[in-house]
Amino acid sequence: MLQEKYALQLMESEKPEQLYKYLFNELPENKAYYQKSINQTINAVIDHLETRTTPYSGATVEQISERFSRLPAEYQEGNSLQIVLEELKELYLNDAVSFHNKKYVAHLNCPILIPTLAAEVIISAINTSMDTWDQSAGGTFIELKLIEWTLDKIGYPQAADGVFTSGGTQSNMMGLLLARDHFIHNNYAVDPNLDGLPAEATKFRIFCSEVSHFSLKKNAALLGLGQRSVVPVPVNDKYQMDPDALEEAIIKEKSLGNIPIAVVGTAGTTDFSSIDPLSEIAGLAERYQLWFHVDAAYGGGLILSDKHKEKLKGIELSDSATIDYHKTFFQPVSSSGFFMRDKSYINYIKYHADYLNSKEQEEEGIPNMVKKSIQTTRRFDALKLWVSLRTMGTQRLGQYIDDMIDLAQRTSLMLRNRGKFEVLNHPEISAIVFRYIPLPNTKVDVCALNTYIRKAMFDEGKALIASTKVDDQVYLKFTLLNPVTELSDMQEIVEHIERHGHNYFRNN
Predict the structure, then answer these.
(1) From CA 318, how far away is CA 265, in angstroms rounded?
(2) Domain 395-507 part of CATH 3.20.20.370
(3) pTM here?
(4) What does residue 234 show for φ and ψ, rounded to 5 degrees?
(5) What is the pLDDT of residues 262-297, one digit of tens each?
(6) Could you tell me which of 46, 141, 343, 435 has the fewest CB atoms within 10 Å of its CB?
(7) Which CATH architecture has domain 128-392?
(8) Residues of the chain with CATH 3.40.640.10
């Protein structure tokens, strides 16, 4: 009791401007604290840029884990922001992986545009939620304008629509969800929103390239269809879906008594950046009455490139599509979009809540975005793209994409010419899969050798690359998304690979 009374007395004696200074609002002292805090944070980021010259520090899991094992999750009395930022430097910033570094060529992480960081300040401070008009107002129309812009770039008809999402996995889920419910709506006297799935859903089949994104199987499982509903289709020597093999797979599944409902074309596979023959797949989808979804999470940025946008030919024939702005549009995570050629498909996911988007509001024409999304509360991520396009224009963004594709193609040739590398693909976008083989017919375990190289490079931190498996064999991978990276940088990275590979070869 005495402790509670003492705490209450402390609370009552504390001055209001001290007690509530942490809240973002219009009070003069709060505005001053906000401005000071933002400036201190900017200085911390600038210091990070000035002191980190490599993409990674080389810290081990054990070293980082040890720091956190001694820390409480909270401080009862609190600390000044400056002290917290200094602590954060030791706990996070010093070891944060730098995607902006020219020698980061590992995963699908792009450097980001400075105008988007200005947008992030506004997004976080104003904290708009994009689900309903009475929470977003003008933000709704900014998102609608960007959806309309993207639909036009894709080549969809006037009746098309879309919505911003958290990423490609969510967008792909929406594509498969609409495919499933569209098929059920047209073939069964069942409403999956009310009744669940028909018994025949266990026989539904979805076709995709054998090198397509893992989210398709994951989403099929979450949608109650099971991972086995996803049928992998063989690819050609360019790692593109083989249309003849697709048709054979469709015919085979039908002969087994299964029910084909959808096909997914990939415009930019994660490993190879290969683009499936979308127009041919669209023709087969129409012939067999399948929903056609295009996963262009990686390759969607080609819509900005005058030089390479023809590679997406056929995406305009799809029923739905995924595009990640946080990959080849140089946006911060998260910024993605899901698009459909007919806005009536929204009815498969639309739900009315009286406190959010009542039917009366829809009849009044109030644009509540929640009806198009599987999220409710949703960030105003569209503002980042809006500020980017209005600050830079699309021509410069398109040039960034052209530059990174050009670098990827030159890097692929450079690897082939060095003589110690097996290169599996010539990139359609910017991913290269290869492995280091120092001598033909070597007795060294090539998988162990390349696994060692990737780990050694991460531990060293001077350059970061990725690895993958093809036919159960370990390969290394470059993913080039930084237009500032030059061929000389790639040559240095390759020299690091050869150095670590030589060390392993010498010791084994």
Answers:
(1) 9
(2) no
(3) 0.93
(4) -55, 155
(5) 999 999 999 999 999 999 999 999 999 999 999 999
(6) 46
(7) 3-Layer(aba) Sandwich (3.40)
(8) 128-392
